[in-house]
Target: APC family permease
Amino acid sequence: MGLDGLGSSSYGPEAALTILIPLGALGLVYLGPVMGCIIALLAILYFSYRQTLAAYPTSGGAYAVAKENLGEYPSLLAASALMIDYVLNVAVGVSAGVGALVSAFPSLHPYILPLCLIVVAFVTLANLRGTGEAGWLFALPTYLFIVCFLGVIAYGLFRIVTEGDPTPVVAPPPLAAATGAAGLWLLMHAFASGCTAMTGVEAVSNGVGSFREPVIRNAYITLTIIVVVLALLLGGIAAIATSFNIGAMSQTEEGYQSVLSQLIGAVVGFNTFYYIAMCSLLCILCLSANTSFVGFPRICRMVAADGYLPKGFAQPGRRLVFTAGILFLSGFASLLLMVFGGITEKLIPLFAIGAFLTFTVSQAGMVVHWRRQEVKQPAKLAMNAVGAVATGVALLVIMLAKFTEGAWITLVAVPVTILLLRAIKSYYDGLDRELRQSGPIVLEEVEPPTVLVVTESWNRLSERAIKFALTLSPDVVAVHLVRLGGPENDEGEKALREKWHIDVEEPVAAKGLRPPRLMLIPAPYRELHEPLLRLIEKLDADAPERQVAVLIPETVKEKWWQKILHMNRAGNLRKQLLKFGGPRLTVVTVPWRLSRQEG
Amino acid sequence: MGLDGLGSSSYGPEAALTILIPLGALGLVYLGPVMGCIIALLAILYFSYRQTLAAYPTSGGAYAVAKENLGEYPSLLAASALMIDYVLNVAVGVSAGVGALVSAFPSLHPYILPLCLIVVAFVTLANLRGTGEAGWLFALPTYLFIVCFLGVIAYGLFRIVTEGDPTPVVAPPPLAAATGAAGLWLLMHAFASGCTAMTGVEAVSNGVGSFREPVIRNAYITLTIIVVVLALLLGGIAAIATSFNIGAMSQTEEGYQSVLSQLIGAVVGFNTFYYIAMCSLLCILCLSANTSFVGFPRICRMVAADGYLPKGFAQPGRRLVFTAGILFLSGFASLLLMVFGGITEKLIPLFAIGAFLTFTVSQAGMVVHWRRQEVKQPAKLAMNAVGAVATGVALLVIMLAKFTEGAWITLVAVPVTILLLRAIKSYYDGLDRELRQSGPIVLEEVEPPTVLVVTESWNRLSERAIKFALTLSPDVVAVHLVRLGGPENDEGEKALREKWHIDVEEPVAAKGLRPPRLMLIPAPYRELHEPLLRLIEKLDADAPERQVAVLIPETVKEKWWQKILHMNRAGNLRKQLLKFGGPRLTVVTVPWRLSRQEG
Model:
């Protein structure tokens, strides 16, 4: 949990520095203040989210908070922003991880996109198989990452303090000459990009249900650790990057080095430690992508339980649905990676929008929550209000700064998703209204139905079906499907009618029952249902109020090879009759268990 | 039709020469006599098959001939040999075609296997889409091939006659020094390999149904053309290869040149004509692979009509079955290509066995055919007897010479296939015996069944089901599936029972009918059928003779999105009940058409 938050600390500063590229070396001057703003925002978020956790100890995600306090549309806004962000989180995490990889091994640079797709495929397969309880597998790279990077930052700061103006062990690539002037606009851009560093915070409140007892305390601790580590990393990176003259490079450039890669190189050089640290970075970013595979089904389940997604998603443990969710997630993430060539900096604008949308909706929901409480807690209300305003302003800045760089995609996708969720909900609502029963049962004439027994030849299967039909209704018609007409078939028909008379009509009449009629109708292969439906229409015309039940004898296939050896004709016929038959048609399936039928 | 026969003329001589490699230049001396034997055998085959065509003008394939004249097992032998050979024909045709390609473009040599697989995939896709009536598409490369190669051979022979000892335009690679001595064994090998050239002849008699009227005349003409062209090609290739010192190379060798490639190079050089000729060779070999995709479904249809393959294969135009056949064919061919690395010379031993098995069985069948005729035709009988003996001897030679080189695979696969076909037949026969009806219907007590109506909530769906159930039987039980027990559910239960009393029991009793009972049974999700089956068992214990009908209301999904929005719970429940329910259980499906239900 919260791996998201740590992973994002690596691409946050990177994204901010990328925006400052046009300023050249001058840009670094502004890095400190921009990071300061981001850390301040982080602090506000921290305190607001502490309150959310306390108020909603069981799953205090933005969707739940918005649903309770703000009503349907804000909750759908939060839900769709979250769902879209889970997809983007996979794409961003994987592409940043691959960015770390190609920094360490520059020869892999031409293969960024294929590497991204391979990592997505790998994570998908691992999740399809079920990751199980591999807690240490997740914990190890996380601790390694924290130790490595806090260590490097501490050592870097130590060198800055002791050496004054330290010489990098491996000099970072020289910064380009300034090609633009610093303006408020550019700084807003940098701020907007750096904000991505905070995207992981929401994960804690969504995942609060999976913490151990005492839940709130554990969630508090996790949130605190994440925010403190994140702040230390952001601040440290900003300080060191400024002192060592480290700027961002475009990921599309040959010889690309991520900011963190340059940073370790400058502080300690490209030694074994460097490779360990970069490896932990790759792992943590892939794991942060993995959190989506936990979070996405969870949000889908919540939304489906309210009827905004197919009901199947609301049932835990439905293998097929679970698989569908994972494939949807990895499919869309792969698509995004392909569209943007696996370049992190291009994906980030899309991502930040969704994250800050959910922040703002969630905080706004909390404000309403506090207002509704009987015991007023103005301090808490104020805190969440500050949070809502701060994240709202940040959202506006991001929207303005990043609109043309891809943010518009998210801004289009969110309402489209909302419309889709609404459409699903209104379908279920309509169905509910249609089926709702009010008042007692209305009985018309209770008359036994006409029972049609479908046979292809006169054998024990059809004998059993006829016997059963006689128990249901006195009006039984055996419909014998004949392949093709023609003169020679006429004789077969005559023989069949005679056999029918002796074998069926006479014994039934002897029992004092009305003997079943035999009807021969020609039916070409594969279209058994059409002549049957025509016959039923005719029967309907004769007795418009009468129900019609079609009896289909079906062999039960218990072994896989029986499925191959028998064509599923009975099943197909049933499907067609149900689909095209009128409202008074019912299909009765009489099973015949092969080779252990008793009677 | 018959493209097979022409395609095989290219790898026949090649295969024979490959065997002669160890003899070095000396081997060429023996090529003439070996080819002579092969052409003599071809002549015998030609006259025997003419008689087969005349006697069985509608589909005179080996299976049909053997079935009529020799009985079950010989016909199955022919059928399985034919089916296996259709698979091998794809593999051999494609690998020989790719061999021609890499001869023309030696830089493609490392990619033989991938190229083979791509060609198989291409042919498969074309056949899945349906090749339609593209007659000219097939005819053009065939005519081109005939014109090119007969032209080259004629020009080569002309040069031999005029120049005496002609100099090759492009010298073929020098022949290796002799590493072995010529012996009868080696010549038998060469003969066995060269016999592959004849594999295409059977295709004409299998495909005779698709000729235009007058069928026999057209089949005669085709057969004659194929055999004459084949003989000319074989003889010409042998003569030219001997004069120009052309020997075979191993396809695995770098710089591999097929015999035909060397031959054109030696006679006319590597000019534009060379590339046109090689291109026509590639096309004709791919088309010869394609004949399998026509022939394989046809033989499957014949065999399935007799009950030796799943009945579905016997129905023309069943898309699914057709697709299954094509995928089976290309899957196995690809597997063979992968196992043998796409090398033609390794596949040929497997292929020749199957072809000569069918020749021999078919000829033997014809001998029996003539013996059974009232008007004796000793000449015809003798002709077919000669054919049977000659192909039988050739089969023996091939088996002996090629056993360790892969022929054993075919010799194992044929009986395995026969056993499988027999097993399928005996399954169908057993089923037939089990279901056969003898004598009149036996009626015990005709008593209406107990009808269980499965409901999950009391709505219009269940109302309709209850109303229908009342028309079938006075003994109706509504089974309400309850999710989970517990104290709060007890109250829900009480409310439900009260509602049931007012809404159902009272109105039904007022009509003078026995009111349906309400039973509440707890059922966890996904396992609806288990508690139901337990209930049915209990009912069975109470009234062991009584039939039980389970009524399941099912919403009819007419749109694809409805299938997503509704889980197919009714369908799953029906499947489970049919599978696990006792012999007296029947399932009734009451359809509910969404949003246009009338009553």
Chain A has two domains: 3-428, 450-593. Chain A touches chain B through 75 residues (CB under 8 Å). Strands of chain A lie at 450-455, 476-482, 517-522, 548-556, 585-593.
